[in-house]
Every structure is written in C-alpha cells, then in structure tokens.
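Appendix B, example 12.
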Amino acid sequence: MIQVEISDRQQLTILEAAGRIDSSNASELGQALSSVIGRGRTHLVLDLAKVDYMSSAGLRELVGALKRLQGNGDLRLAQPSERVLEVMEIAGLDTIFKIFPSIAAAVESY
C-alpha cells in the first residue's frame, strides 16, 4: 500500500510518498503526480524518505511525470532510501533526476 500526501508551498508542491511502490500500486503514485500537474503545479518535490521499495513500475511513473513537466517545470526527488537510490542508479535514473538529501535542499534548489 502506498500513501501520498500533497501540500502546496507558494510556487511549488511537495508530495510525500510512504510505503512500498510496486506494480500493484505504482499507478496511485502516477495519479497523484498527474493530478498535481493537471492543476498547473509544475515545480514538484517528491519526498521518498518513507518509501522502502520502488519497482520499475514506480520508476516509470516518475519518468512519465518528468516528461510531462519538460520545458515547463521539474520533478526533484528528496531523501530516497539507500535501497530506492540503488534501484535508481541501476536504472541510470540518478543522472536524469535531481536528487537531494533533504526536502529543504530540494525546495531551495528551485
């Protein structure tokens, strides 16, 4: 099961995900991202501190959101666990996404 909490802060939106993201629920993360983007929010920070596992299905949702934002905004990642970061590195996505050690650092990067 995955939980995604969304909070708007001035010009950016922070999404805090929690749980295990796999093929059975990755679409929930994708729907949360699409909903935020659909509201015109284009500067996003996704907090992954409470995500203990992410499969390739979850990574696909992140890449899809990043593509939707290209040229209009960005999706920055904060606090991925070692396991999630390792999966991203294996997939080569650590070079595509801007990854930060804290939410504050990700917010300040905008």
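The chain has one domain: 2-108. Residues 2-108 form a domain with the Transcription Regulator spoIIAA fold (CATH 3.30.750.24).
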